[in-house]
Amino acid sequence: MGLLTPLTVVLRRRQGPAGRPARFAAAVVTASTGLALFSIAASAAPVTGSDARQRQFAAAAAEFEVPQSVLLALAYRQTRWESHNGEPSTTGDYNVMGLTQVDLPGQDSPALHTLDEAAALLGRPAEQLRTDPQQSIRGGAALLAKYQKESGGSLGTGPETWYNAVVRFSRTAPAAGGNVFADQVFETVREGVARTTTDGQTVSTPADPALTVDRPVPARSATPGDLECPATLSCRGAWADDANYAVTDRPADGQKIEYIVIHDTEASYDDTVSTFQAPATEASAHYLIGAGDGRVAQLVSTGNTAWHTGNRTFNMHSIGLEHEGYALGRNHDRRPTWYSEQLYRSSAELTKYLAGKYGIPLDRQHIIGHDEIPKPVDSVPPMHWDPGTFWDWSHYMDLVGAPIRATTGGSPTVGGVVTIAPPFDATNRPPVAEVRPRPQNFVPLRTSPDDAAPLISGGTTAASDVRAKAVAGSSYVVADQQGDWTAIWYDGVQGWFPNPDGRSAAADNRPGRHVATPRAGVASIPLYGRAFPEPAAYARYPGVTYDAAVHSPVPLNMSVPAGQKYTLLSDTPVRGDNFYDVDGVRAVVTGEDTYYPVRYGHRLGFLKSTDVELTAAATAPYPAD
Q1: Nearest to 97 by CA among 82, 117, 119, 116
Q2: For the CA atoms of 148, 149, 151, 157, what is the dihedral angle to 10 degrees?
Q3: At which of 338, 356, 391 does a domain end?
Q4: DSSP characters for 534-562?
Q5: What is the CATH number for 150?
Q6: Which of 195, 287, 194, 159 is nearest to 234 (CA)?
Q7: In terms of Cα–Cα distance, which of 266, 404, 236, 248 is closest to 318?
């Protein structure tokens, strides 16, 4: 079979119910040690029905003498039991068990090829483990059984003895994150979980709250004192070169931290660390989250200002989280379609920690994507669009503890607020030009209430084109309503999308919500990409010189026409400010002009408070309980 040599293959007959023969299986034994590593079942008939995956887990657990609860919990922590139609994650994980098949230039690590290892154990083509959920589950069970034997454990034992095997499955050394992964898996075993996958499979594992686990491997070391990480994560320092960020004293120096910005790396974990540690990069982020095991590296102290958004205002007032992955494609593998569960969970845990530390609201007005950052001025190139269309915002906000639909209710009403909240499943697969149909995190916006109408503003279905994509969690003001279609104010125009029974966007009918509209008597008001102070503010700071070419609060070539309304990120305006750092003179220049941060389209923006009126959002009654 090409995995271990020399090998002896011995056939034995397994017994089915009531002693009836079930099928032949092969027990693979090393000739040198006589150690039985695992059994490999012959081909079984496909399992069908909405409980097929549940039965596949049960069969694989019995076949390989693995505790079913551990196998289910491990797969849940890898993929939430999703097959992803056999398409890869951003870092080359496949199918229900998240087995890896990655070819990286200059790297040949077994951790990158657990799918091939599992395929060899089963004696099956790797393609089957990529595309067939049943074979993925069998391959994962075979690997887990192999790791149990290699770590000195026995097959057929209770879940409490499988801790070290789960550490091995994480593909990470204990001190580097394997313990964290295993702790999370056994937390799931203790708590139990149930869900229906996006392809309609109902899977569950019951709670086992009294379970205690043999944990003979050393516990991970405590988080070093210079790191800002929750104790529940595996965190290390991988500090960026000091040429790649600004040394500041946030928030004590007046730069309030208000946002957490989600990025993807478009590179591997190690390459990203190297990039930020190179002095010529002139870019950085505060943290990096790994895909395979959810490990976290802190790159820049949160008190310092990382250069991660391409916009000075947002750099000053945010924390940047880089996630190992790719928004669409990469040059060494198939196009990815999902981010790993370990990455989501570690990132969400970090976000909750940072939000608590700095008082950042846990909502999509303050936890935003890099794709939602506006241009600072019109002369800069097009802005970034990561983390992309298949970042599952709904799942992420669930993990953060702030579900997108938690504060919604009632029916959309003109002048009211709706929150975009399409299901991230097979029922929401808007076209994206570069990939096959799959769940996406947005609804496309059209010029009229018609599926055949063009996309607004000349938008296209290209993944990078955000002109007509309203992303999950973002909130807008309803401009019109016709039957099952809802129109919102978006980038200065009306954008229509089908919304039967509030399926794609839920009304936010909380009382007291305000929206921004141009003040009376003007045809339109300008939109700004950054909230800079007025020129006169610089004169109040010794040694600071105003440079119009750099510091001018110039509006974008965008405007809000009279009568249109946009949602506020905060009812309280912010003062224009700018961190000045020239020739050794450093100061946070704060002006008298104030701005309202708003969601203008896919991206955010700022309106001068003197240009707008705040009006109460229209509301409709909540449905009766």
Answers
A1: 82
A2: 50
A3: 391
A4: PGGGGGGSTT----HHHH--PPPS-EEET
A5: 1.10.530
A6: 287
A7: 248
Neighbours of 132 (CB within 10 A): 19
Q: Would the pLDDT of 558 be above 80?
A: yes
What single letter denotes the amino acid at residue 191? E
Looking at the structure, tell me whether residues 529 and 591 fall in a common domain.
yes
Tell whether 364 and 446 lie within a shared domain.
Answer: no
Check whether residue 257 and residue 357 sit in a common domain. Answer: yes
Q: How confident is the model at residue 232 (pLDDT cuts 50, 70, 90)?
A: confident
Question: What is the Cβ-side half-sphere exposure of residue 325, based on CA atoms within 13 angstroms?
Answer: 34
Q: Does one domain contain both 277 and 346?
A: yes
Tell me the pLDDT tens digit for each residue of 283-292. 999 999 998 7
With contact defined as beta carbons under 8 Å apart, do 533 and 489 qualify?
Answer: no
* Alpha helices by DSSP H, 151-243: 163-169, 178-191
Closest CA to 233 of 173, 286, 297, 185: 297
CA angle (148 as vertex; 161, 191 as ends), nearest 5: 45
Domain that holds residue 448: 417-510
Convert the pLDDT of each residue in 514-545 to its tens digit: 999 999 999 999 999 999 999 999 999 999 99
The answer on 54 and 162 residing in a single domain is yes
Residue among 329, 389, 377, 402 at smallest CA distance from 552: 377
Beta bridge partners of 559: 526
- Tokens 């003040």 correspond to 519
- Kindly compute the dihedral angle of the four CA atoms of residues 63, 64, 66, 69, in this order, to the nearest 10 degrees: -40
Hey, is 261 helix, strand or coil? strand
**Helix (H) or strand (E) segment spanning residue 11:** strand 7-15
Number of domain units in the chain: 4
Domain of 240, CATH number, reads 3.40.80.10
Q: Do the beta carbons of residue 109 and residue 172 sit within 8 Å?
A: no
pTM comes to: 0.89
